[in-house]
Amino acid sequence: MAASDYKGPAFDSSELKELKEKIVNACLILDREGITDGFGHVSVRIPQQAALLTIAQVSPGCAALEKVVLLDFDGNFLGGAKPAPYEWPIHACIMRARPDVMSVCHTHSKWSALFSVLKKGLRPLHMYGKFLPMAGAPIYPNAGLITSVERGDALAGALQDGAAVLLRAHGDAVVGASVEQAILRTVQLAFLGELLHLAAVHGEPLYMTEEELTTFAGDRSFPARPWEYYLSRLGERRIA
Amino acid sequence: MAANAKDIPTIDSSELKELTDKLVTACHILDHEEVTDGYGHVSVRVPGADAFITIANISPGAVTRERLIMQDFAGKYIDGAATPPNEWPIHACILKARPEIVSVAHTHSKWSTIFSVLPIKLKPLHHYGKFLSADGPPVYEGVGLVRTIERGDELAAALGSGPAVLMRAHGDAVVGESIEQMIERTTRLAMLGEWNHLALLHGQPKYLSAEELEVYNADQRFPLRGWEYFVGRLNGRKNQLE
After folding, report:
1. Domains plus CATH for chain A?
2. Domain boundaries in chain B?
3. Of A187, B77, B157, B198, which one has the greatest count of Cβ atoms within 10 A?
4. SS3 state of residue A221
5. How far apart are CA B215 and CA A86, in angstroms?
6. Cα separation of B45 and B71, whole Å?
7. Which residues in chain A touch residue B120, judged by CB atoms under 8 angstroms apart?
């Protein structure tokens, strides 16, 4: 890998304190909400830099400030805990391809895993699904870990300009313009998967139409409200 | 008769303290019982006024007394926290149309949602469903947030004189003549939805008949036991009923 030309704030700088706290809380939230098991990670882009913060090899539910790592988009270690997660290319490749994305969540959500191996698409049947296309979240077809830039780029290609991609026999990757939005979408994607599972066993549900989705995608969304709620549910586990 | 705004007690007055405490507790119950997620709200009518109190842009599970807001039925701010929930017309329009109703809950209950998008009705198959009609709650088909009085009135019309209405691709609205009754109905609607789902996996369930529902509905002996139980399960959570 190329040597890093990172010129952003140092890992221990006060500038990164809030972002570090935010991704630790975000990881704890995904654990508390029953989305992640012992695996998965959340990342946040360092503003204006080709670099990100994520968690080193630790379960999201055990994330702590001492477990945060700073990496550039080539996977170079720039500070913090070691070793980097095997699947760092999920985060780096998506952020490189999508300048609008500030945060990426990768989970093994059972609801995403389920629809990743079924022909039935995970399609929006509740207005929470306004961030999905009508045909459902796209599926990245290659099973296995995303441990190379080549596979990370292929995953970013499957995501395209969307908000979420399912990873076959694996889980999902969900993006947002903020950590709060990525977390909200990740929780809502799981809720949608459960709803679709529950409804579809009884027959063909009424999905939202293209027109309805267009209308609701324009709606204001409120990531600050659920973020406050999710933090409140962390209780003593919340770190900041 | 409606009182003038100047005659309405303030949101933090001792007159309204019991109601506002109960409203906060009701929100925490719906969160604890996993009926609400980060969204939804509960309201209570201000006695004798065309006004109600609900939660101001906060999740039911995180609400405190300081985050309550009082509005009139036209949406005008009266007192309390500044930002009304986007969907205040759900409460205003139902309370306006139904003078006997004291409390309204709006949730994104997953059980209401699935039956809102299926051709199968959520029908009473246990006597917990005695407050429902034999063919189950109606579905309001207008997808999306209920942010206007026009849509709130449509929702109230879909509810009619009933206890609950499902909202397509969204959730439900449930009403009660007290906060306690609203909580009992909201939690039981979720239980019934789950039991309908489970039973339907095995075949056609035997539903309660209209005659049976009438018999059970006449029995109103236990309105408070459920409330006491739900409060007990909050187990010391902040702002619960003193």
Report:
1. 23-38+87-237 (3.40.225.10)
2. 5-234
3. A187
4. coil
5. 63
6. 10
7. 202-203
A51-55 β-sheet, strand order: A77-80, A68-72, A51-55, A41-45, A103-107, A171-176, A164-167, A139-140
B113 vs A: CB within 8 A: yes
Q: End-to-end CA distance of chain A, in Å?
A: 35
Whether ipTM exceeds 0.90: no
Spatial distance between the Cα atoms of A140 and A143, rounded to a whole number of angstroms: 8
Selecting from B86, B114, B169 the residue whose C-beta is nearest the C-beta of A198 gives B114
Return the exposure string of B77-113: e unless at least 16 CB atoms fall within 10 Å of the residue's CB, then b: ebbbbeebbbbbbbbbbbbbbbeebbbbbbbbbbbbb
Q: Is B110 on the interface with A (CB under 8 A)?
A: yes
Chain centroid offset of residue A160 CA: 15
Task: Over range A72-84, report the average pLDDT.
Answer: 97
Q: What is the pLDDT of residues B166-206, one digit of tens each?
A: 999 999 999 999 999 999 999 999 999 999 999 999 999 99
Structure-token pair, residue A137: 């979240």
Alpha carbon B242 to chain centroid, angstroms = 22
Higher pLDDT, B176 or B2: B176
User: Using one digit for the tens of pLDDT, what is the confidence trace for B41-97?
Assistant: 999 999 999 999 999 989 999 999 999 999 999 999 999 999 999 999 999 999 999
Question: Cβ(B94)–Cβ(B101) under 8 Å?
Answer: yes
Look over chain B and give the mean of its residue pLDDT values, rounded to a whole number.
Answer: 93
Search chain B and give the residue with CA nearest A207.
B117
